[in-house]
């Protein structure tokens, strides 16, 4: 039996703003996506604004909506500067305005006399919430809510410092009834999306401003991740890295799953310690994952098997989790490099410079060497550059020589210039002496390096071409199906275009 009743939307939109007018606007937007709404009364800037909102609500209560009133005090992690009596006053007003539920934090609950909540005219149904913004506390094996108890449900929201913390909270959701699990923080973001899959009664998503760290917006939670449709049978994929919040891989892969009606979801995992993630693979139901900085090389020692070329490259960007739990690694970065460059340059016999010597640089170097190019490496770490040059039969070029050397193609394989630290270039205009410049960075689509090259009249290749090619190859490895390339490409290019328009608008506003 569900806490909020059968057929009720389990994605709960969080409406939070400083004024009643903005709260009402958010409420109307939220109702397009879900009928379950949390009203953060504590976010309103004054009692006057709270009075305005509740007055409007008493006149215009949306039909069929489940409204949860929350007026969290500062002591409980909210914004209301009042004592328990002040909070209860607004919750009583919320009931009169039509709210069926209220969220009462543990700090207030513990200040009240035993049984007081049931006798006080707050909204009839009470969700007891426990917040820990510093970490995930020791958790019980399960949460039991008595049918005629003091509250109707329990919510635990805790910051996940590790993926293991997220797993503990999701495990509690699987074992409990009338329970809401809310992993917080960037590390906890994937588990927040998987909460409904694990058995949590609700998953929270803000309509506009985030009200807790690591929240996923309402539109993303419902349409990108399809959290309300996830079940125990849903296959889980993801990208691991640090940082990982900038990645458009979730958009690319989830678009493919939706287009082909595949029961799967792709999530961004912020992984600080690789073993933390690897230990959670089985419990999270992960079937495969992409690997980005800084784990492309360190993942190798944890693989049961590895594609020969990936082993040669010494870097893996794609892992398949086999049915027995073993890990098989391969590399699709080299596919992306070849496909992107071959559209613009006949590679065989050409001279190509790779700037950088990390995992992506290694994939690019082997791709070009196999394509018949003469490969040169320039990198800050001389020893690493020499090792890579030796592995592909190439040469090391000192940076001081770039002003006088000429190449058919220069490829940037460093993260310099990547969103959000865009606006900087790894190379100077005087060092760009070539026919083509390719940046392996895809966000922004046109990096500062590519802008400098264009000003010199040099042809450019955006990293988005490599990103699409390598990602589509990954998708096909995992699903063993033909990828819906046009839909995946359109989704990524549209997102990048919108991002560029937004950045340009902000730039004009700043001036």
Keywords:
2 domains, alpha/beta, 511 residues, 18 helices, TIM Barrel, 37% helix, Rossmann fold, eight-stranded parallel β-sheet, single chain
Reported for the largest beta sheet, the result is: 8 strands, parallel
Q: Which structural class do you get from the secondary structure elements?
A: alpha/beta
| Number of domain units | 2
- Beta-strand level of the residues, as a percent range? 15-25%
Instruction: Supply the CATH class of the largest domain.
Output: Alpha Beta
Rg for CA atoms: 26 Å
- CATH domain topology of the largest domain: TIM Barrel
Number of strands: 20
Report strand order across the widest sheet.
7-6-5-4-3-2-1-8
Q: Sum up the overall morphology in one term.
A: elongated
Figure out the total of helices: 18
Poorly predicted parts: none
Question: Into which percent range does the helicity of residues fall?
Answer: 25-40%
End-to-end Cα distance:
56 Å
The average pLDDT score comes to 94
- CATH A-level architecture of the largest domain: Alpha-Beta Barrel
Q: For the record, what is the CATH homologous superfamily label of the largest domain?
A: Aldolase class I
């Amino acid at each position: 039996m569900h806490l909020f009743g059968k057929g009720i939307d389990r994605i709960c939109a969080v409406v939070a703003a400083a004024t009643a007018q903005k709260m009402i606007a958010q409420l109307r937007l939220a109702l397009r996506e879900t009928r379950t709404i949390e009203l953060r009364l504590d976010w309103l800037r004054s009692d006057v604004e709270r009075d305005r909102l509740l007055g409007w609500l008493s006149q215009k209560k949306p039909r069929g909506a489940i409204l949860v009133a929350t007026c969290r005090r500062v002591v409980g992690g909210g914004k209301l500067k009042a004592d328990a009596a002040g909070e209860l006053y607004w919750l009583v007003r919320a009931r009169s305005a039509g709210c069926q539920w209220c969220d009462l934090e543990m700090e207030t609950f513990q200040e009240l006399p035993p049984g007081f909540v049931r006798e006080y005219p707050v909204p009839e149904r009470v969700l007891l919430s426990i917040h820990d913004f510093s970490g995930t506390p020791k958790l019980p094996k399960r949460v039991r809510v008595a049918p005629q108890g003091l509250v109707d449900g329990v919510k635990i929201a805790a910051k996940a410092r590790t993926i293991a913390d997220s797993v503990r909270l999701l495990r509690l959701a699987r074992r409990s009834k009338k329970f809401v699990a809310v992993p917080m923080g960037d590390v906890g973001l994937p588990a927040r999306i998987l909460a409904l899959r694990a058995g949590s009664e609700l998953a929270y998503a803000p309509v506009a401003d985030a009200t807790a760290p690591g929240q996923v917006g309402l539109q993303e939670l419902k349409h990108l991740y399809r959290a309300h449709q996830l079940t125990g049978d849903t296959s889980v994929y993801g990208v691991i890295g640090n940082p990982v919040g900038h990645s458009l891989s979730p958009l690319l892969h989830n678009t493919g799953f939706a287009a082909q009606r595949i029961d799967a979801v792709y999530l961004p995992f912020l992984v600080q310690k690789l073993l933390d993630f690897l230990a959670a693979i089985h419990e999270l139901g992960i079937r495969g994952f992409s690997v980005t900085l800084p784990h492309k090389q360190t993942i190798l020692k944890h693989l049961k098997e590895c594609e020969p070329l990936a082993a040669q490259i010494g870097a893996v960007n794609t892992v398949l989790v086999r049915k027995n739990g073993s890990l098989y690694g391969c590399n699709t970065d080299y596919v992306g490099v070849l496909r992107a460059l071959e559209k613009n340059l006949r590679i065989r016999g050409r001279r190509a410079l790779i700037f950088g010597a990390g995992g992506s640089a290694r994939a690019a170097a082997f791709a070009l060497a196999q394509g018949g190019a003469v490969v040169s490496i320039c990198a800050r770490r001389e020893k690493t550059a020499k090792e890579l040059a030796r592995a592909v039969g190439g040469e090391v070029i000192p940076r001081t020589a770039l002003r006088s050397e000429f190449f058919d193609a220069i490829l940037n394989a460093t993260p310099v210039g990547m969103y959000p630290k865009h606006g900087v270039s790894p190379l100077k205009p005087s060092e760009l002496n070539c026919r083509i410049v390719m940046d392996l960075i895809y966000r922004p689509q046109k990096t500062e390096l590519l802008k400098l090259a264009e000003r010199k009249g040099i042809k450019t290749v955006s990293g988005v071409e490599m990103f699409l090619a390598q990602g589509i190859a990954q998708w096909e490895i995992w699903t063993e199906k033909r990828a819906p390339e046009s839909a995946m490409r359109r989704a990524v290019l549209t997102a990048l275009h919108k991002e560029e328009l937004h950045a340009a608008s902000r730039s004009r506003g700043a001036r």
